[in-house]
Amino acid sequence: MGRPNRGYAEGAVARVVGAGTPQTTGSFRFWFADRRWEWSDEVAAMHGYAPDTVTPTTELLLAHKHPEDRDHVAEAIEKSVRNAEPFCSRHRIIDTAGGAHHVIVLGDTMIDKSGTVVGTAGYYIDLTATIAEERQDLLDGTLPKLFEARAVIEQAKGVLMRIYRINADQAFHVLQWRSQETNVKLRDLAAQLIAEIDRLPPAPPAVQTAFDHMLLTLHERVPSREGRCRGSGSA
């Protein structure tokens, strides 16, 4: 079995807003050789299915895409298989009840023990979900503490808005998710994102793939706070 590249946790359940709030992210894996999909209960729910009631296939996934997005997603899947690269997309899902979900798919490669790319794995993020009232209250209490870091957070939000064509609230939602998922302070992730953005390749087809990988692995490269204090001479 292939393993996700750069530290994907097997079976990990992605969370955006934490306990007590609706789950708005879920994980997936896709093997190129037999075009086999796995999805988490959260992704199944986005499509309107209860856990373990349906086996995901390419045909089923495409059937749930908004008609205006279906061809785009089909091509993205074929391109992923053809070029052995991550499956990444922004599109709409129509669930079994007819409801529309605006999602971003963040992907990375899965690599086997020999170093061969065998598939793609990552997360679906449902951007249509609203932040629960109690979580918003927590954010309102946290934001004043982030005042000094507001500029870099706003810059990072701008990058996400540009890459994924989402609004400011949704961009903050994505940053918050990565902060909670990796247990790294939001302002540190934002600063690392800005520090690394110039490393992206200029070719448009490669930009989102490279950005997705960078976003999903930022936490691995954020310097420890203890190390930064020693280096700066701070207490």
UniProtKB/TrEMBL annotation:
| Record keywords, A-Z | Kinase, Phosphoprotein, Transferase
> Which stretches make up the PAS domain?
39-84
EC number(s): the record gives 2.7.13.3
Q: Which domain of life is it from?
A: Bacteria
Please list the reactions this protein catalyses: ATP + protein L-histidine = ADP + protein N-phospho-L-histidine
One Pfam short name: PAS_3
Query: In its UniProt entry, what is this protein called?
Result: histidine kinase
Species of the source: Nocardia abscessus
Q: What class of enzyme is it?
A: transferase
Q: InterPro entries in the record, alphabetically?
A: ANTAR, CheY-like_superfamily, PAS, PAS-like_dom_sf, PAS_fold_3, Sensor_kinase/Photoreceptor, WH-like_DNA-bd_sf
Q: Where is the ANTAR domain?
A: 133-194
